Amino acid sequence: MTCKSDGVAAAVRAAAAVVAEHRAELVDLDRAIGDGDHGENLNRGFTAVVAALDTAVPDTPGGVLKLVATTLISKVGGAAGPLYGTAFLRASAKLGTAADLDVPALLDALRAGLEGVQARGKAVGGDATMVDALIPAVSAAEKAAEDGGDVAAVLTAAADAADRGAESTVDLVPRKGRASYLGERAVGHMDPGARSSALLLRAFAEAAR
Q1: DSSP letters spanning 142-161
Q2: What percent of the chain has pLDDT over 70?
């Protein structure tokens, strides 16, 4: 199974709907350890992405992800815009002009997205950031692909692992971002970026089914 640009665009629309649905949750998570703007910023960004897709859908999967990247970078404030923007931009560059998104290309895109986030945010596993959701997601995606999984199975494995990774941030002392200023006081709170990463991967997985 492969996905063409319209399938990728549909997955992005599904992600936008999930972000809107969970906007208040993300606001509350961020308010506990940050400045409370993560849900609003991400929702505003993905609303703009959908508006851009309504105007024209790029004709390649990479083109769709580049549209997502440039829109998020221009519309989303705080840390989320640069981090997610870089992730989608790196993924789009890895896909290039290919007309289809197959499992090997998906793995390349996921790896590139993670590398982009880490390059931009300088975070590693255990820092209580979105990286704690993305690292296990990429590992699980690779394992699912080795087991013969299609695009939907690979994304589902990634989403499952990202859920667990996001949960793991509850017990971590943040070492990056605004939450790091709280130190031990931040323990007991899930990182909002890890949660939104898991939500996006789940939306992509559901759309791929």
Answers
A1: HHHHHTT--HHHHHHHHHHH
A2: 95
